[in-house]
C-alpha cells in the first residue's frame, strides 16, 4: 500500500518546522559563482511533494541567476524558538497564468499592485531536495530531512 503524498512524514515535518515563519532568505549563485541572498515571503503551503512557491517578477536579477544556476538555498529562522531551517533545492520560473491565479493570496498587492495581471508576474518553484534544521530540543545537533526520495515514488 502506497502512502498518500499528503501524509508523507518528511513533508509534514517540514511544514511543522516552517510553521509561523513567513519570510526566508533565498540564496542564488550569480555568474561569477558568488552567492547572493535576498528576503522572500512564502505565501502558500508547501506542496505535498515538497515544493515551495514564491511570487516574483520574471525580469528580476534572481530569475537571471536561477536560469543560469538552478541550485538554490532558502533559509528560515525563528530565533525566539531556537529553530533554524536550511533548505537546498532546485528552482525554476513558472509563467503559467492559471498557476499564478491558483497560488495568489490577498496581501500580495503590496508587491504586485495589479494583482495577477501585474506585468512580468511569475512564480518561483523551488523543488526541495534536502532540509537541514536545528532546534533547541536537539541540542543544536543538525537533523536532516531528505525529500529526494519523494520524487522517486
What does this 3D model show about the protein?
The chain is α+β, with helices and mostly antiparallel strands and about 150 residues long. It is about 15% helix and about 40% strand. It has helices at about 10-20, 60-70, 95-105; strands at about 25-30, 35-40, 50-55, 70-80, 85-95, 120-135, 145. Strands 1, 2, 3, 4, 5, 6 and 7 form a 7-stranded antiparallel beta sheet that branches. The radius of gyration is 16 Å and the shape is globular.
For the secondary structure, the number of strands is 7
The biggest beta sheet reads:
7 strands, antiparallel
Structural class: alpha+beta
Mean pLDDT: 88
Rounded radius of gyration (Å): 16 Å
In percent, how helical is the residue content? 10-25%
Element order: H for helix, E for strand: HEEEHEEHEE
Strand percentage, roughly? 35-45%
Give the overall shape. Answer: globular
Poorly predicted sequence stretches spanning 5 or more consecutive residues: 1-6
Q: Termini distance?
A: 12 Å
